[in-house]
Amino acid sequence: MNLQPTIANELLQIIPLIEADFGELFAIASDELLWEQHPEKDRYKKEVFQDFFKNAIESKSAFKIIDVKTEKAIGSTRFYDLNEAEKSVAIGYTFISRKYWATPYNRALKNLMINYAFQFVEKIIFHVGDTNFRSQKAVEKLGALHTETFLVEENGRTHITYTLTKENWK
């Protein structure tokens, strides 16, 4: 599975993230309200976002999300934790501009990524912070099931694992 394809649908396109995307994405990520339910509530701060962005670039599996109508960036996402033995991959580290919340864009993004991934894997994993109720509701609407709750040792935060199988994919 190519973890950084360029793919598109009628609403958006995802393209491999590059260093030059920092300013455009930080302009979106600097909205403090974007992170209010997220476990890393201070990601709106430049120095915190710089670490997030650096890790995204180093992952070689992160994307810039582009609105095809405006040709402007609306956020970022990535594939991660590809496990060929278990035929699974995770989707996450996603944020989109609040302007696009409660619009068809988030679902279009997930449809795009999930349909691509299911060509290569049998299940997709989502890790969601236990206080990120918006994201929990969004992945449940996809048909993903709560399969695990775990504590991240290095930061003491609780996360929930959701698993989406081909047969549960709506």
UniProtKB/TrEMBL annotation:
InterPro entries in the cross-refs: Acyl_CoA_acyltransferase, GNAT_dom
Residue ranges of the TM segments: none
Domain N-acetyltransferase: 12-167
UniProt xrefs under Pfam families: Acetyltransf_3
Domain of life assignment: Bacteria
UniProt signal peptide: none
PANTHER family for this protein: BLL6696 PROTEIN, N-ACETYLTRANSFERASE DOMAIN-CONTAINING PROTEIN
Name of the protein described by the UniProt record: GNAT family N-acetyltransferase
